[in-house]
Amino acid sequence: MANDNGAVTITVNTGELGQGVKSIGNQFLTYLGSNPEQFLAALNILGIIFAFIGMVLVAKSIFMAIDIANDRSREGFAGALWTSFIGFVMLALPEAMSITAETIGAPKATSITAYAKKAAGSAGQMSELAFTGAMFVIVLLGWIAFARGWMIIRAVTAGSGGNATVGHGIVFIVAGCLCAHIPAILSIFG
Description:
The protein is mainly α and 190 residues long.
């Protein structure tokens, strides 16, 4: 539609678009909630990826140590040792997550689906499935954040962390651990 100045203005009704986006998100969360096997498979694949990253880091730390010993690198052994340590953490990420959870006092994990039934109450089956799907996404992001925290610490100790500090890595580790144990954390609050 043209106005007095000859400029064309376009009016878009975003109400229908917004409903479509909400519908797609709700369908995705409902799908995740009704198919927990898919989520567990994704966590297993994520564990395999982290184990591979761990193997690469351990191999890299060996080569870093060799370069340092042969005076081909100006880095100290601290970077190689931290890279090796974090490689072993990545290889055993589920155990590292469990140890971190016990250290920060996170309660024992509860079933996501059992907590979703309790939280949804009388809201209905679709709300329960959507809530379960949302919890699965939060848990998955928690695992990724946990691993990211360790990688930030490795980058800082190797001297390539940029503006990051060890504190940033610790925040990612604790936040990822809390997100991965979100049903148990939420059950504390009611």
